[in-house]
Amino acid sequence: MPNTKTYKTAFLVLATLLIAFFFLNISLGSVHIPTKDIFNSLLGGALENKSWQYIIQDYRLPKAITAIIVGSGLGISGLLMQTLFRNPLAGPFVLGITSGASLGVALVIMGTSALGGIFTAVLISKWSYVLAASLGSFLVLLTVLIVSSRVRDTMAILIIGLMFGSITAAVVSVLSYFSSAEELQQYIFWGFGSLGNLQWDELKIFFAIYCIGIVFSIASIKGLNTLLLGENYAKSLGLNIKQSRLIIIIATSLLAGTITAFAGPIAFIGLAIPHITRQVFHTSNHKVLLPAVFLFGAIVMLVCDSIAQLPNTDYTLPINAITSLIGAPVVVWLLVRKKKMLF
Amino acid sequence: MKEENRHTILETKGLSIGYTSKRAVTSIASNINLELHEGELVGLVGANGIGKSTLLRTLTRVQQPLKGNISIHSKILNTYNSIDLAKVLSLVLTETVASKNLSVFELVALGRQPYTNWVGNLSETDIDIVNSALAQTNIQELKHKKCYELSDGQLQKVMIARALSQDTSIIVLDEPTTHLDMYHKAYILKLLQKLTKETNKTILFSSHEIDLAIQLCDKLIVMTKDGIVTDSPKNLIQQGAFNSLFPKDLIIFDEVTGSFRVNK
User: Fold this and answer.
1) How far is it, in rounded angstroms, from Cα A10 to Cα B248?
2) Which end of chain A is flanked by fewer CB atoms within 10 Å, N or C?
């Protein structure tokens, strides 16, 4: 096979880049910490400067891991959706899945006061965000899928995704009318997206759900490849379409839903990463694309986070803005250069 | 006849085809008795809207028959599980592939899906079969091209190669010659004829190229409003089966040349 050999070097380069950017991401921040101390701390050694140790081990390291999970997870969910919907523009953001998650979180943050304080005690915790966001994204994806099985026109599916965005915006503005300033602020901050809010115990749960999503993604590789031919051909090859679809949907809603829940809505990564990957790996085989998208997504997210952190300053820019600033031009550039987008 | 000794691949008995909706049952054709043998090139001809697609869809289990039986290798079609069916029956559809970003090799290799493991790894045997499918359809030089770089004629050959790599005893093609120029129409049908001889597979296709089908097919299924007749092209011409295919005021069948002409 000529294919696998050439990709080995590409994978090696990407893996090296991932490790390099991982360390770069940890070494950059508002406080300057010498490289030697960073390595020392990461290898488990104790630092003399306790605040440095705290910054690295309890802030920067979880943040870098979160960046890897978020970037790779969103990239993979975008890849899965582009194949499932046979549409190069599909992605968690465009299809309204992020909106669904946002709606869930908005209902939890602001809906509690609008609905009365009975549920407040039960609902106000980080876990309720996670649950609401996952549920929201799952419901939206299910609706999109039901519609897409009736309407063959893929444009209609994208419009439905946009409509979900509008509905979310409308519900949020209605809710914000009734809710307090703090709640509104809480929701807006959540909307900026953030990689650095997670404690280790939260990160563990996040990572566990992410792993389940990845397992489902890996399980759907063969089905995804068959779906590249279209559903009728896939059926004629003996593929159980309903089962494959369900696995893909579970994988994407687990990934996109929990990521949005833990890190807020993060735009364009899901859409742009699979396309960037296809520029380097000239294949449609998901067995190659899936790990490649994982690496690209993780690298791009680490870079975006390093930029958002604005090294050696006290400012942190909203990560959602950075990914949009990078992602949107990439999509435009791809369209202009390739004349059309393929998946 | 020598033909009678050949192994029967696909058989229908008292088959009725059509659609069932909530309100009514629409029958399109009934009492269809077909027998397709191995190594036969079979053409399905008939006017637009006569039910060719419905017949093919029923024979390939995309839709259910209203009545009667279909069997492949003497086994009732509905008793096959989907993977086993994919190992005896492959399709070339009119629709184009969803992803034009697939390379020719990747696309043809997808025909091996029913045989590969859970992640779809190709074994040495799989790769050999894919390569021989590429060779049989004369598209080795296209191997690394992407589908969006191909012409319609090339893409059709690739789709036939994919069906070949699925290694089934019967291949069904739905109008494989549409959108092609005259040369490629003849080329594709001639290729199908060559494949039946070389591989001993049964190939069934629907087509509007009746003139070409008469010249190349071993057997023709002619669908008219009055019913379905199946026989060799020569016998069908003698029976005058083509005369009632289209309204006579516009198109007449010329039995001498075996072709249609416009009634001037």
Assistant:
1) 66
2) N
